[in-house]
Design a protein that fits this description.
The protein is mainly beta. It has 4 helices and 22 strands. About 4% of the residues have low confidence.
C-alpha cells in the first residue's frame, strides 16, 4: 500500500538531518564558480563589443581608393578569385592592354577572350559571355544547321566546325556563337585574330566575324523585323514602308537593282515618329532606334584569281537611290587600292551595303597562320558629323567611311543615316549559302574548321557607359524583357506572327 511517508532506509528523500544548514560566504568552490562565470561573460563582451570598437579606433580608413598602376584593384583590397569570370582574360598579354587609335586617342582594353582553356562549352548558360545558337539561319537560305556542339575550344583557339551530316533535314552542321545581351559596347576598336576555314583556292565557305545592335538577335527574325539594319534618327519618309508616302518619291519604284523597287522594308518599327505611349525601347519615343550591322569580315574566294577576299561592311537603312552611297574622298577613303576596292555589291531591297573588299594571303587559312581583322568606330549623338568607321586587315588600315558617306540623299529624300549609336554585340560563325557564293562541292573538304585565336575590344579612355547592353541613352533591357518570347523562339520569324503590330507612326496616323 502506498503512503506519503518515506521508507526508513530511503535516505535520498531526506539527505540532511532536520535543522541542518551549511551555507557560508567563505566557500572556496562558490568563489571559483562565480569567477569562472565572470571570465566567460567578459570574454563574450570583449569579442563582440570591445574588439570591434578597438579595431575601428586603431584602423582608420585609407585616404586612397586603390587606383594605382594595377587599376581598380591596385591596392590588393579585392581578392583574386580564380573561377570568377572577368571581362579581360587573365591570359591577355600585358603589352596589349592599351593602343593608340587612328584618331590619335589612347584606347584601353575593356574585353578580351584568349580561348586558352580547352574544352569550353558554349551551350546556353555554360559561358558568361558567349552563347552558341541552335537554329536554322533562314534569312540567307543557308545550307547548314547551327548547333552549339559545333563550337568549342582546342589548343588555345575557339574552333567552329562544319561537318557534312544529316541534321534537321539539312546536309551540314556548323556553329554560330554570339555575345548577345551578355557583352555589348558602344564605340571602340574590335580586333579578332582568325585563321579562315578551307583553302584559298576553294570557294563556298562563308566565315564571318561581325556585330549587331542589341535590339536584334541574329537568327530570331521577329526581333530584326523592322529594326535591321535601320540606323536613323529623323522623322520623315525614311521611316516608312518602301521609303514612300502616297507614291512619292516616284523614283523609289525603280530605284533598286535592274529597275526593281528600292526597298521592301516594312518601315522603321522604332522610329523617331513613334506616337507617345506606343511600344518603344526609349529613352523616349522621339529617339529613332534600330539594329545596324558592322562586319569585321565576311570571307569569300575570288574564283578568277583563286585568292581569298574579305568584305568589310556597314549595313544600314534607309537607302540611297540605287544604293549609291558617297564613295568620294574625303567622305570615303580606300587606303591601298592595289589590294582593296569598292564592293560591287552595294545592297538590295532589304539592306544597303557600304562595303570594301580586300585580298588576303593564302597562308591565313586552315589553321596555318592567323591574321588580325578589326574595325574602329566612333559616334556621338551630340556631334554626329564626327562619326566614322575604319577597318583593318592583317593589322593594316583598309578603308574608312565617315558620316558623310551616308549623308542626306535628295534623290531618295532621306536624311542622315547614323554611324551606329546602338550597343553592339559580337557574332562569330561559319556558314555556307548559294546566296553568298556557290559552293565548290567537288573540292570542298569536310569537316572544315574556322579558328579564332583571340577577341579583344578597346575603348577611348574616359568613355562613360561604353560597356554594357543597356546604356542609359540607348536602353534595351526592358524592351527585350517585355518581348522575351520573340528573343528566345527562333520560329517566330516576323512581328506579325506574334500577333503584334508596329507602333503608330505620326506621319501616317493621328497620335490622339
Amino acid at each position: 500500500m502506498w503512503d506519503k511517508d518515506p521508507d526508513v532506509d530511503d535516505i535520498l528523500h531526506h539527505p540532511d538531518p532536520p535543522g541542518y544548514f551549511d551555507f557560508t560566504i567563505f566557500s572556496w568552490r562558490g568563489w571559483v564558480n562565480t569567477f569562472a562565470l565572470f571570465v566567460i561573460i567578459a570574454a563574450i563582451l570583449t569579442l563582440f563589443i570591445g574588439y570591434p570598437v578597438l579595431f575601428d579606433q586603431t584602423h582608420k580608413p585609407a585616404k586612397f581608393n586603390g587606383f594605382n598602376a594595377g587599376g581598380i584593384n591596385g591596392s590588393g583590397q579585392v581578392p583574386s578569385l580564380p573561377n570568377l569570370p572577368l571581362l579581360i582574360d587573365r591570359d591577355t598579354p600585358s603589352n596589349v592592354m592599351t593602343r593608340t587609335g587612328s584618331d590619335g586617342f589612347l584606347y584601353d582594353l575593356v574585353f578580351s577572350d584568349e580561348f586558352n582553356i580547352d574544352g569550353r562549352s558554349f551551350y546556353p548558360g555554360d559561358d558568361p559571355f558567349w552563347e552558341a545558337v541552335d537554329l536554322y539561319y533562314w534569312p540567307t537560305d543557308d545550307a547548314e544547321w547551327y548547333d552549339p556542339g559545333a563550337v568549342t575550344t582546342q589548343d588555345g583557339k575557339m574552333v567552329i566546325t562544319m561537318t557534312e551530316q544529316q541534321v534537321h533535314n539539312l546536309n551540314f552542321q556548323s556553329g554560330m556563337v554570339t555575345t548577345w545581351n551578355k557583352f555589348c559596347f558602344t564605340t571602340g576598336y574590335v580586333e579578332v585574330s582568325i585563321s579562315l576555314p578551307g583553302q584559298a583556292n576553294t570557294a563556298g565557305l562563308w566565315p564571318g566575324a561581325w556585330s549587331l545592335g542589341n535590339l536584334g538577335r541574329a537568327g530570331y527574325g521577329a526581333t530584326t523585323d523592322g529594326t535591321w539594319p535601320y540606323t536613323y534618327a529623323a522623322c520623315d519618309l525614311g521611316t516608312l514602308a518602301n521609303q514612300t508616302l502616297n507614291g512619292n518619291p516616284a523614283a523609289e519604284s525603280t530605284g533598286g537593282i535592274g529597275g526593281a523597287p528600292l526597298s521592301f522594308q516594312l518601315g522603321q518599327k522604332l522610329s523617331a515618329c513613334t506616337c507617345p505611349g506606343e511600344d518603344h525601347p526609349g529613352p523616349s519615343v522621339t529617339v529613332g532606334r534600330g539594329v545596324p550591322e558592322i562586319d569585321i569580315i565576311e570571307a569569300r574566294i575570288d574564283t578568277n584569281r583563286m585568292q581569298g577576299l574579305v568584305s568589310q561592311s556597314y549595313q544600314c537603312a534607309p537607302y540611297d537611290l540605287f544604293y549609291d552611297w558617297n564613295q568620294q574622298s574625303p567622305a570615303t577613303t580606300v587606303f591601298s587600292d592595289n589590294i582593296s576596292f569598292i564592293n560591287t555589291y552595294q545592297g538590295g531591297p532589304f539592306q544597303e551595303a557600304v562595303s570594301v573588299e580586300t585580298y588576303i594571303e593564302d597562308q591565313f587559312y586552315g589553321g596555318n597562320a592567323y591574321a588580325p581583322y578589326a574595325y574602329e568606330y566612333w559616334s556621338d549623338p551630340n556631334n554626329r558629323d564626327d562619326g566614322y568607321i575604319t577597318w583593318y586587315s592583317n593589322g593594316e588600315q583598309t578603308w574608312t567611311m565617315t558620316s558623310a558617306t551616308i549623308g542626306p540623299n535628295s534623290q531618295s529624300q532621306v536624311s542622315q543615316r547614323l554611324i551606329s549609336e546602338e550597343p553592339m554585340y559580337l557574332i562569330l560563325n561559319l556558314a555556307m549559302a548559294e546566296s553568298f557564293q556557290a559552293p565548290d562541292f567537288k573540292h570542298l573538304v569536310f569537316p572544315a574548321q574556322m579558328f579564332i585565336d583571340y577577341v579583344r575590344v578597346y575603348q577611348r579612355r574616359g568613355i562613360k557607359d561604353g560597356v554594357g547592353c543597356n546604356p542609359p541613352n540607348r536602353p534595351t533591357t526592358d524592351y527585350i524583357n517585355n518581348h522575351m518570347a520573340l528573343y528566345t523562339d527562333p520560329n517566330i520569324t516576323t512581328w506579325a506572327m506574334a500577333n503584334l503590330t508596329y507602333p503608330k507612326n505620326s506621319l501616317l496616323e493621328s497620335c490622339t
